[in-house]
Design brief:
The complex is a heterodimer. Chain A is an all-beta fold. Chain A has strands at 4-6, 11-14, 19-25, 32-38, 45-50, 54-58, 61-66, 71-76, 85-92, 100-102, 106-111. The chains are: A mainly beta, B mainly beta. The interface between A and B is medium-sized, with 25 and 23 residues.
Chain lengths: 112, 110
């Protein structure tokens, strides 16, 4: 079993839809959880960072962490064509992030 | 604010040629630094990370090496490139448990 698994996609949705992106992990030592957005031919951009279980909201984005189920999600409300990108989940066990583990990414297309 | 730079942005090199990619970070001191490779359609592969000057940990055995001559500078090198070295190379720095990436270098080995 891979340490981090992510819905493979690709995912196509109409503009305005609610998008749900998901990752599961196997290592219960992970404490810090991140979502990155990566546009084509660009470096990943940190979108959301969470530490504890629960929800964290930032504008149209909500990150959800369920440590008991080892499951994290990113929700995008009122999706826009500019949200079209690859989304990577990442996690770390701490120790100042010497070891970040990334999911393979989900490619999202939001169609106008 | 912190800024991370990488150059060159793109590079086309023949098999067997040397490689030097540079990464610099501004606005922070003693960051952890990382080199990743991202092959087309695949995830991020951690190559090296550094917790300080001259301190390099290698995650994957290969023909690549890394050096950190200054606190703010991280260099990825190879003496002889292989076709399999083609990919998108990303430098990153971390603050506590948040990691930030540079713009990347796209390397094509021909």
């Amino acid at each position: 079993q891979k340490e981090v698994e992510q819905d493979p996609g690709p995912l196509s949705v109409p503009e305005g839809a609610i998008v749900s992106l998901n990752c599961t992990y196997s290592n219960s030592a992970f404490q810090y959880f991140m979502w990155y957005r990566q546009y084509s031919r660009k470096g990943p951009e940190l979108l959301m960072y969470t530490y504890s279980s629960g929800n964290k909201e930032d504008g149209r984005f909500t990150a959800q962490v369920d440590k008991s189920s080892k499951y994290i999600s990113l929700f995008i409300r009122d999706s826009q064509p500019s949200d079209s990108a690859t989304y990577l989940c990442a996690m770390s066990a701490g120790n100042y992030g010497q070891n970040f583990v990334f999911g393979p990414g989900t490619r999202l297309s939001v169609l106008p | 604010s912190q800024t991370i730079h990488q150059w060159p942005a793109t590079l086309v090199q023949p098999v067997g040629s040397p490689l030097s990619l540079e990464c610099t970070v501004e606005g922070t001191s003693n960051p952890n630094l990382y080199w990743y490779r991202q092959a087309a359609g695949r995830g991020l592969q951690l190559l090296f990370y550094s917790v300080g000057i001259g301190q390099i940990s290698s995650e994957v055995p290969q023909n690549l090496s890394a050096s950190r001559p200054q606190d703010w500078q991280f260099i990825l090198s190879s003496k002889k490139l292989l076709l399999s070295d083609s990919g998108f190379y990303l430098c990153a720095w971390s603050f506590r448990d948040e990691q930030y990436f540079g713009p990347g270098t796209r390397l094509t080995v021909t």
